[in-house]
Amino acid sequence: FENFKDQFAIETYKFIAREKEFSTLLVSFIEKQHHYHQSAYEVLEKALPELNKLLDSTIYQPVFGLAIEQHEKVFGTIESFVITDCCNYIEKYGLESEGIFRLGASTNLVARLKSEFDASVANLEGEKPSVDTVASCLKLYLRELPEPLLTYKLQEKFVLATQSLFEIICQNRAKRQNTCYNNPCTSITESILCQFKISNKFPNKNCC
Q1: What is the span of the domain harbouring residue 174?
Q2: Same domain, yes or no, for 34 and 90?
Q3: Over the stretch 11-42, which tens digit does the pLDDT of each residue have?
Q4: Are 92 and 127 in contact (CB under 8 A)?
């Protein structure tokens, strides 16, 4: 036991005697760690602005619920491709379909089309979805906009413009028919609606 005790004391004293050497190694290790983390910090500090810029400009993000201003920033145009693609598709295949924007569509099909638009992989011409599905998807997109297309800021001006137009139409109607309808429509709108009255089964009241 005494031998082990002496050996332990010898090793302890040797360690104490070399304390500066071991401390120097520890400080050297800490300095290397400091240099590494400082270099990493400098690299990250330079990289973060570029990464944030890439994140802001990437097209791989949901377009549903994305503000029009943000859409312009990301895609380089204020024209939403969801609105453009859906309207072009409906104009091409759906003008003679019954109940556009009125008849419902499969929830799963609408959700799938929405996810395809969000992933920027939608191909209406390739998949040929039903007109009702496309119309429902378009309605969903417009509902999820943070701000209406006409914007809250310009809402009052649009209301005033509509009222002025309403008064002009009423005056013109009164001159022709000596009456003013509660919901008059222009002759252009009337002709467009009545053109598709039979094929779309519009009620008479929709054709003024």
Answers
A1: 154-181
A2: no
A3: 888 878 888 888 899 999 999 999 999 999 99
A4: no
